[in-house]
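FAQ: What does a multi-protein file look like?

Like this. Sequence, then tokens, then the next protein.
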Amino acid sequence: IGGTLGLTACLYYANRIRRSRWMSEEERAHGHETTHSVIDHFKTLILDPDTTVEEANKRRTTSYYLKMRESHSKSLVLGVTGGPALSLARLIKLRRKEMDRIQHHWKMRNQSHRTIVVMCDDTTRRLLADARRRILEPLEHSSDIHARGAWIPPLNIIPDQDMHVTIALPWWWHTIRQGNNKLTRNMAQRFKQTLLLKFHYPFQIELERIILLGGKLIVALWRCVGDRTTEDGRVIHDRHGENLDPMVRLREEIIRCFITESPDQRRKPLTYQHRMSDTNGTMDSDEVLERQHTIKQRTPGMGVTADGFIHTTLCRLPLECLSSQDIELDKIHRLCREASATLNGHRMVIDKYRFLETMGEGGESNPCYKPLYDETIDAPLRHRVGIDGTVTERKSIQSHTVDKQMTIGSANNFLSQTVAAAADDNAETIEKKSANTLSELFQPPSE
């Protein structure tokens, strides 16, 4: 009996550890899937400015699926163990350490970073906030640092009004130096020039899924949509668009405009490396290697993974000090899947950007809270020039016509359109029918 109990205890604790750790490299490579895969060959797609919407979506949605599958392997967060008094004291100590880490840059008071984001519209914020609330309900979490149950600091829950999509990080954390405000304004101006000169018009993104990324980060993941033409000439606006992927192209152009010099040398790079070179005249080779292309390393979807990642951060879970008891994540994963099934396909227009400089007062994932610099920049609009020289604005996000009816929005003049004539041998009958309108279809038949 003693041996059986000992073996049971060993198996129990081994299972707890297995469920609370990451998959090994071998498990990630093989997993429990069959050898046949629909998405396996999409993992090696390389995204560049000439990548189409369909190609980029195959790459990013494959990455989303693999991240979700990997996150499901972590289904348990171990509680902080010990005696009742000891575990609580240790828990509070770990939580205070976590708060210090979250506010590390803010407490230094001399560092900032710059980011470009797009704010979620009212409808999107409302949907994502409601989904987040439902996903976190099983945790019964508290913001009280002395709570024995699940604890989530307020800074880790992004306020509804601050929900956003991160576009690029042109300048990672650095010490604020003399001329900082001028540098920020120059970078914002450079971004505006890139939008205008490279014709980055408004575009749409579509919600793909919501996942608990890495077992600790609840994010909404997006894909792009574009136009494709069917065999019979109809235009469809969906995830298989044949046009260039606007998000990949935008990020590539932002990176290029900040790290390269124009052929006429009028545009100089705006990077930490360039700024230090101008100040000191030279830099150590190790420093150059460390700082080179930080914007590309930090911009989502453009670094090592290069998977076109588009995300909105909703919440961060402090795994090291979440609770004094073990927390099951299976319910969280299930609710994320249900929220994905409910919200998949929701769209948002990318037409206004915010260039922000923040010191980290809002935490790790919220640059919108009390920024040092905040400028809203509109995407350039399409215009149509008439033969007489008049210029009119043309919306880039518009509905498409199929069989002379609007597929998005209400039909215009529906009841006054003429009914197509039916085949009939009587010419007089054909002429009479062709004069009918659709409104007459709803009238009682005449004798």
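And here is the next protein:
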Amino acid sequence: SSDLSSCFALLADSCCLPSPFFDTMFDRFVQPGRLTLITYGPCAGKVCTIVDIVDQKRVVVDGPESVTGVRRHMIPIKRLSLTDFRMTLRRGAREKTLKKELEKGEILKKWGETAWAKKLTAKEARKNLNDFERFKLMVAKKKRSTAVKKALKKK
């Protein structure tokens, strides 16, 4: 942490930018133990954890498969969205260690309570509606709209 601050200070001096600019610019880093959401590919929409960093553009992620359905594989960072959640994990940690850390910190439970996760769940539920359920939804929206219009008209 102090090494990072000194690097920011050196960078701020060389760029003629104020030091607080670098301190507050980023708060989610690509690091082992960071919970991420896969945004593209066959596992899109699933959460996984960064286990190891391969190079500047690729990381190794693991679900674990029994918990989230994501097997351990290499993925480009562009296909990931970093979340606020992080657990203490060493590089290349085993699946057993990863499961233990996920359970200890209740990370997936906390993720499920976020607005981001709720929005994804709602989107998935809307996607899986059949024709009759979409019709019922449309009728309910029309009823709500007329009730709101009546209430506003009275005032």
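Q: Is there any per-entry metadata?
A: Some entries carry free-text notes. For the entry above: The two ends are 59 Å apart (CA to CA).
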